From TrEMBL:
Swiss-Prot/TrEMBL catalytic activity: L-threonyl-[protein] + FAD = FMN-L-threonyl-[protein] + AMP + H(+)
EC top class named in words: transferase
Protein name, entry field: FAD:protein FMN transferase
Pfam families: ApbE
Organism: Paenibacillus brasilensis
Keywords in alphabetical order: FAD, Flavoprotein, Lipoprotein, Magnesium, Metal-binding, Transferase
Cofactor(s) listed: Mg(2+)
């Protein structure tokens, strides 16, 4: 689902029922938020760009509102208006290609989040310029994971793990580990999938990883990855191979995995160290690993809101 593998694990006497309900919730979210199907609420918003405002459900409206705010405050590093650029490159699909400089230039005027007009009283969204496209791919899975966790907890689940294609959110502690921590592996960005470079030990927190190894293509001896720069219209260029964020909720993790690519690995880890309730692991292209001060192997943590990092 959503172009990835979903894994849900819960400990509850009504587990089968709750898991089936969770899948139904995910299907409903996907049908309303996708931009890759025939119809969804978000597709209707995009199809009416430059034409008229479209009223949407409260949850979609609130997520777009949050996305717009972060997009503006981050100076476009995180950008939900980046849809036209994503479609132009199409990285991750069979017809991915290197666009011309003229195509990229024409796209840049369409990815301005300031041109997303929101009406709080009507829950309507208006894209002010024809051809604009909102893409929630950088935040939607985090929102879905947070909503699933809320649903499970409301129905009495005290222990579980939600994994939406590498976007991992834990509920309580792990009943199968002696230390009570969920052990969440961190992909080695230089090896095939399944080869991990370390593990986050976590309770009741989110672990989200984004890397340049996830979606890319090669052309003329150059590698083009899917993390695009709103200012240049091309994939971001710096020394970072992957960013992992540990946070209280998955939406924050999604946002910060994108913001973590804004600068060099050294500068980004300093920025993460200054954030409250956020921990991070950044792996540079030369293999060097940067870890925030709260993630150390011998760090003793007794609270439920806890996480630590072990090298493997």
């Amino acid at each position: 689902m959503m172009g990835t593998i979903i894994n849900l694990c819960i400990y509850h006497e009504d587990g089968d029922y709750l898991l089936n309900q969770a899948l139904n919730i995910l299907r409903k979210f996907e049908s309303r938020y996708t931009i890759n199907k025939t119809y969804s609420e978000l597709i209707e918003v995009n199809q009416n760009s430059g034409i008229q405002a479209v009223t949407v459900g409260e949850d979609l409206y609130d997520l777009v509102k949050l996305g717009k705010e972060v997009s503006i405050n981050s100076d476009g590093i995180f950008n939900i208006a980046i849809g036209p650029l994503v479609k132009l490159w199409n990285i991750g699909f069979k017809n991915a290609r290197l666009p011309s400089k003229e195509e990229v230039r024409d796209c840049l005027s369409l990815i301005n989040p300031q041109k997303i007009e929101l009406n709080d009283s009507q829950h309507s969204i208006y894209l002010m310029e024809k051809g604009m496209v909102i893409d929630l791919g950088a935040i939607a899975k985090g929102y879905f994971a947070d909503q699933l966790k809320r649903y499970f907890i409301e129905h009495g689940v005290k222990n579980g793990l939600i994994d939406l294609g590498g976007n991992v959110l834990s509920i309580g502690s792990s009943p199968v580990q002696r230390d009570g921590y969920w052990h969440v592996g961190i992909q080695n960005p230089f090896k095939s999938r399944g080869n991990i470079i370390g593990a986050v030990l976590t309770k009741d927190r989110s672990v989200v990883t984004s890397g340049i190894y996830e979606r890319y293509f090669h052309q003329e001896n150059n590698k083009y990855h899917h993390i695009l720069d709103s200012k240049t219209g091309y994939p971001l260029e710096n020394d970072i191979a992957s960013v992992t964020i540990i946070s209280d909720n998955s939406v924050a993790g999604e946002i910060w995995t994108t913001l973590g690519f804004a600068d060099s690995a050294n500068i980004s880890i300093k920025r993460l160290n200054a954030e409250k309730n956020i921990e991070g692991i950044i792996i540079a292209k030369d293999g060097k690993m940067f870890v925030t001060s709260g993630l150390i192997a011998d760090h003793s943590v007794d609270t439920e809101q806890a996480s630590k990092f072990l090298y493997i």
